[in-house]
TrEMBL record:
This is MerR family transcriptional regulator. SMART domains: AraC_E_bind, HTH_MERR. Keywords: DNA-binding, Repressor, Transcription, Transcription regulation. It comes from the Bacteria. Pfam families: GyrI-like, MerR_1. Gene3D superfamilies: 1.10.1660.10, Regulatory factor, effector binding domain (3.20.80.10). GO terms for molecular function: DNA binding; DNA-binding transcription factor activity. Residues 1-71 form the HTH merR-type domain. InterPro entries: AraC_E-bd, DNA-bd_dom_put_sf, GyrI-like, MerR-type_HTH_dom, MerR_fam, Reg_factor_effector_dom_sf. It comes from Romboutsia weinsteinii.
C-alpha cells in the first residue's frame, strides 16, 4: 500500500487534491489508520486515480466525474458515457458558434445600420374582407407552416398578401396567432376557417428588413399613439408584402411588412 505522499508522486495528484477527492467521495483511500488518520492507497485506488485523471484531461466536471464513477463498471459502460459526452460537446460547440455569429451580426449591423430608421405612421380604415385563416397557440416561427397549409387548401382562390393577426396584448412564447390570406370566395374545408374580418381603424407603418427588428415598427406606432392621445387595442396585424418563399427564405433585408395596430374608434 502507498502512503498519501507516495501516492501523490505516483499519480501526480497533489496531496491537497487527494484530500479533496476523499472528502468528496471521489477517491477514498482503501485504508485509513484509525490512530493517526493516515491515508493508504492500493492498486485498485491507482486504477481509479488513472480514470479520474483521464476524465479531468477530457474536461469532465467534478459532478460528471462522480456520475461516471457511479455508473461505469467496465470499459463498455465508459464508452457509452464518452459517446454521450462527445454529443454534449458537439451541441455546445454549435451553440457557441451560433453565439459567435450573433456577435458578428451585431458588429456588422452596428457599423452599417447605426442610422435611426424613420417610420411613417398613418391612420387607415380597413374594410371588411373575406379570409381563409388558421388560429393557433404556439410560436411565431410556426406561422409559415400554417400559411403553407392554407395556400394548399385555397389553391388559386386568394387575392392579396398573407397576414398574421396577433390576439395577445404583448409578446408571448406561446402566442395566440391567426394566420391567413384574403380570398375571393368562401371555401368548404375542415382544415381552415373561412370568415369575414370586420372593418376596423388601424395605425399603420411599413417595416423594411428582417423580422427580428420589427419591434422598432411597433415602437414607432406606440410612440405616435402616445403623442397623439390615441388608444391602441388588440389585435395587431402584419401583412407580408414581401417575405420568405415556401421553400427558400431569400434575402431577409429585402422583406417588406406592413405593421398595423388596432385603435379605439370614436
Amino acid at each position: 500500500m502507498y502512503k498519501i505522499g507516495e501516492f501523490s508522486k505516483i499519480t501526480s495528484l497533489s496531496i491537497k487534491t487527494l484530500r479533496y477527492y476523499d472528502d468528496e467521495n471521489i477517491l477514498k483511500p482503501s485504508y485509513r489508520n484509525q490512530d493517526n488518520g493516515y491515508r493508504y492507497y492500493n492498486e485498485g485506488d491507482f486504477d481509479k486515480a488513472k480514470l479520474i485523471i483521464l476524465l479531468k484531461n477530457l474536461e469532465f466536471t467534478i459532478s460528471e466525474i462522480k456520475d461516471v464513477l457511479n455508473l461505469c463498471k467496465n470499459e463498455e459502460d465508459l464508452n457509452y458515457v464518452f459517446i454521450e459526452k462527445k454529443t454534449m460537446i458537439e451541441e455546445n460547440i454549435k451553440r457557441q458558434q451560433e453565439l459567435l455569429k450573433k456577435f458578428d451580426d451585431y458588429n456588422i449591423k452596428n457599423s452599417t445600420e447605426n442610422k435611426k430608421i424613420v417610420y411613417e405612421i398613418g391612420i387607415k380604415d380597413s374594410p371588411k374582407i373575406k379570409v381563409a385563416s388558421i388560429r393557433y397557440k404556439g410560436r411565431y416561427k410556426e406561422c409559415g407552416s400554417y400559411l403553407r397549409l392554407i395556400y394548399k387548401v385555397v389553391k388559386g382562390n386568394y387575392n392579396g398578401y398573407p397576414f398574421s393577426i396577433y390576439h395577445d396584448e404583448g409578446y408571448k412564447k406561446d402566442a395566440d396567432i391567426e394566420v391567413g390570406v384574403v380570398i375571393n370566395r368562401f371555401i368548404s374545408s375542415t382544415k381552415i376557417s373561412c370568415k369575414e374580418l370586420p372593418s376596423s381603424k388601424l395605425l399603420s407603418t411599413t417595416h423594411y428588413g428582417e423580422y427580428n427588428k420589427i419591434g422598432n415598427a411597433y415602437k414607432a406606432i406606440f410612440d405616435y399613439a402616445n403623442k397623439n392621445n390615441i388608444k391602441c387595442v388588440v389585435p395587431s396585424r402584419e401583412v407580408y408584402i414581401k417575405g420568405p418563399g415556401m421553400i427558400f427564405k431569400g434575402n431577409p433585408k429585402k422583406y417588406i411588412t406592413e405593421v398595423m395596430v388596432s385603435i379605439e374608434e370614436d
